[in-house]
Design goal:
The chain is an all-alpha fold and 272 residues long. It has helices spanning 9-33, 35-56, 68-97, 100-106, 113-139, 148-176, 182-194, 207-214, 217-229, 239-242, 244-268. Helix 3 (68-97) crosses helix 9 (217-229), helix 5 crosses helix 6 (148-176) and helix 9 (217-229) crosses helix 11 (244-268). It is elongated. Its main location: membrane.
Length: 272
């Protein structure tokens, strides 16, 4: 009798999809059994949005005019996609440190199932986060002004950024392996997140700092989605400012191209 590992390519693909979905369902069941963790994860970016929108918004001026809250919401949407790396890292490193990943590897299942299942679960979480933030933004008076097509394109860019951060998180979780290392990750992620055009335009910053901010991959996504949503932002004459939509695709694709194979290779070497 032919085993799953000896199956034809079409059958192997079918089993790989089924195994990946099994791992995804495991994470979904975990959320259902521990809803507080999911709820806190959804409320945290909303808290940032409300804090900056209402506590500091009155003192902020958008170059060229416009409502600061409309300037802010796209930035926080992108920031939440980047901060998702912490949840990915924690989940992967926890499974590795507790031996769960090794048990999965000992089972007759597709080698891609664990990382693909993690990817699908985290993308579902990202979609929920975006939905919660959009509702909060709409309640604050934010909206998109260039039609539903550009708005969907903006949400696509946000999910693409989350996909890139996801594979970075998977790789770091497999390398560091310790959930306690999330503190070290936060020391790196938070400055990168705030060293962007999420809360303030680069043109208001010192020249060298504004250049660094413009070349932050997240800044490209933020600039592009502000344009797609029709929200106030900054134009600028720099190359990055003029090609933000292109770079909002290029940066995440480059990160996925780098960290996806690194994650797969690291996963295969876990037991060595």
């Amino acid at each position: 009798m032919t085993t799953r590992l000896e199956a034809l390519p079409g059958s192997r693909l079918k089993w790989a999809v089924a195994d990946g979905w099994t791992i995804t369902r495991r994470d979904l069941v975990h959320w259902a059994n521990h809803p507080v963790q999911l709820i806190v994860g959804l409320l945290f970016p909303i808290m940032i949005l409300l804090m900056f929108g209402y506590l500091f918004g009155g003192a902020m001026k958008v170059p060229g005019g416009g409502d600061y809250r409309e300037f802010l919401v796209p930035g926080v949407l992108a920031l939440s996609m980047m901060f998702g790396i912490e949840a990915t890292f924690t989940a992967v490193s926890t499974d590795v440190s507790r031996g769960v990943t090794d048990r999965f590897r000992s089972m007759p299942m597709a080698g891609s199932a664990v990382v693909v299942g993690r990817c699908v679960a985290d993308m579902i979480n990202a979609a929920l986060t975006l939905a919660a933030l959009v509702l909060a933004g709409l309640a604050m008076g934010w909206g998109w002004h260039r039609g539903i097509g550009p708005a969907f394109a903006a949400f696509g860019l946000l999910l693409l950024l989350r996909l890139a951060m996801l594979w970075v998180g998977i790789h770091l979780g497999l390398v560091l392996r310790s959930p306690e290392s999330v503190m070290a990750l936060q020391i790196l992620v938070w400055p990168v997140g705030f060293l962007s055009n999420v809360f303030a335009p680069p043109e208001t910053m010192p020249g060298w700092l504004g250049t660094v901010v413009e070349w932050n991959p997240m800044s490209a996504t933020v600039t592009a989605i502000r344009e797609l949503f029709g929200n106030p932002g900054w134009g600028g004459d720099s190359w990055m400012a003029q090609h933000s939509l292109l770079m909002a695709v290029v940066w995440p694709v480059l990160m996925v191209a780098l960290f996806f194979p690194l994650s797969v290779r690291r996963y295969r070497r876990l037991s060595r």
